[in-house]
Every structure is written in C-alpha cells, then in structure tokens.
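Quick check before the chapter quiz. The format below is the same one you will see on the exam, so make sure you can read both the input and the output lines.
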Amino acid sequence: MATIGALVLHGFTSSLDTVNALSPHLEKAGIPYRMPLLRGHGQTPEALRGVKARDWVDDAASALADLLREADKAIVIGLSMGGLVGLTLAIEQPDRLAGLVTVAAAMRWVNPLAPFCGLLSFVLPRFASPKPPSYENYVCTNYTWFPTKTFVELYYFGREIEASLSEVKVPLLVMGSERDTIIQPEASWIIYQRTGSTNKEIRMFQKTGHEMMQGCEKEEVFAAIMTFIESRRSDVIVPQVG
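Here is the expected output.
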C-alpha cells in the first residue's frame, strides 16, 4: 500500500487560517502534509504586487516535492485559488498525485466586474476584498484589499485552467456551495463535467459560503475530504522497483 500525503493550498488573499482546521484530521489519520503560504500571502496586501500565477504554482510544486520525501504520492486539497493551483499540478505532475480535491475553485466569479479587471487595473490600483462571512466564532485574517493587477493574474489563471480541464486525469473530488457569494456554483459543475478524470465525484453543499473549511458545514467538508483520502490510500499501490 502506498504512503499518501496531503498538500493543502489556501486561496487568494487568504491566511492559513482558512485551511488549517483540516490539520487535526490529517494528523489523527497519520497522514503527512504540507500547508505552504503561497507567494504574496502571510504578510500585507502590498506583498501581492508583481506576483504571478506561476509563482503560486511553483511554491506549491516546491512543497509537493518536499512532501514526497516522506510520502509516495500526494492528494492535493485546494481552496479557491488553491483549487486552480491543484488543477495545474494535476495537469503537469499527474504521476506524483494520488488525487485532487477542489474546494470552491476560483472560476466563474460572481462579481460582474471580474471580466473587466484588466481595464479596471489601469484606473483602480487596488480593490476591496469581499465582506467577510458572519460565521459563528469566525475571525477573518484575510487581506482587506488586494492589488487589482494581481487579481488580473488570478482571473486569467482561472480562464486558462478552465480551457485545459480535459487534461486533468487524476481521481477527483469537486466540492462547491450553492450559497457561495464569491464563485458561481456552476464552476464546480464545469470542473466536474469537463475534466478528463474517469474517477470523479462532486459534492455540493447547501448552507456554507465560500470559506467552506471554516463555515457552518466544515465538519461535513472535512469528512468528505478524509473519505476521499482514505479511498485513495487503499487503492493506490506504488510499483516495486526490481
């Protein structure tokens, strides 16, 4: 049986607070994991200036390489922007992945101004972040604003990945929320329907918002992730050399 590790990726403007509640579940199951801060995050919004989508992918790839020093293959769990990064890794390094979980992946934005972000970046150098959700005991540590030009990177990153979904072949769990006010719920169905994976499933939640790993259904979200990981843990066998 293969050793499975988990690479957990946060979203745009996010801190690790948006994903680290998964850690106890991974630790209880004895699953090694990495939870990197992607370029421009964990500091101030100014740190996002000049950051490219490729920087986020490269940071995740470095964390993946480190994780695979103690695991045979990895499951990538990506929230929002992290979902796009996970889809990229699935396209570029499929042999290193045992599966992928996208959580409210950042495609098809609700904000009607999103498609015009390129033009807006010339007149609006910064944009206010969406209002934080009002979850019980929720403290938002995400950036309160972001450079518009960096959002342009994210927006077109999502467009590029959407056009390449057929290249995703790894086992896949797609999760989204019908109450997401940041990403259109149809984005999850687009990922599910257009990816080339033959082993895939979709879970749509009815109550939580975009921050699915902090919201009112977070335990159900974690349970679905862990069930997927366990299914891959038992199914994946690494060939013996020699």
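If your answer matched, good. The chain has seven helices and eight strands.
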